[in-house]
Amino acid sequence: MNRAPLILSVGIADARLSDPVWAGEMIALADQARIALLLLGDGHAAPFDPMAVAQWLTPRAGSVGLVPTIDTGADTGSATGGDTGGEPSSDVARALSALDAQTGERSGWQPSTLVQPTTGESVAHGVAFVAAMRSLWADADVGPDRRARSDGAEVDHGDRGGNADVLDVARPSHGHPVLVQTDADPLWSQVAADVVIIDMDSPKPPPGPKCLLRTYTALAGLDQIEALYHDGIIDGIHLTPPFPRRGLQEFADTMLPALIERGLLPRARATGTLRERLGLGMPS
To answer: Checking phi first, is residue 85 left (phi over 0); if not, alpha (psi -120 to 50) or beta?
Structure first.
């Protein structure tokens, strides 16, 4: 194959993800279906804590990339210079760095303004929040004395010259976790994402990110998906099944073999970091 294989993604915002038994079933089905990206919350206000669920799923995730929704409204004071009485952006950056280390660099994040009422102010806060997170990762040094800590604890940075804004955890070795955005969030056109999720009638995304076509089920649209992929219009599909267990099981049993047979997916499972498996370069 000249291109990276078709990217498979799924979004789940079901409250049952807070149930360990149900969540365990979902991650096992996602791994069986060769899902590359599991969006926890899918960019919306989820009835569970996406980061807590991601941390619990980590040892059970197999090759599935975990992508928790991150509420940019919760950290706007830190991201925009306001007084929040703490540094929650640093906490989020540290937690995402730890998650990436725990998963073997197979995680991402989906900053969202949809958790809060979507207003012009919330989008501006979201843009500032993403910039602040990337700045924290960029300023964190990489070296043997600042290697990523899988427990999220602080590492010794020695003399930081009084710069209290330096992140007290090493950045991921590939720069920062994969950033996923959806065209349902106005933030998608304001930040440079690694992966964007679109509908057929969405505005054309900027060049650079991988484009995934949103669909409730891929079972009826195989020919269209294959044509869009070969024409370079999409790089993958994002499933939003109304019944996650049934949808994932049907995909694994029916769609996955068809995709392999058509050469859209290799017969062997992909290995490597999430960036490598998605065909993404190092972030600038």
So the answer is: left
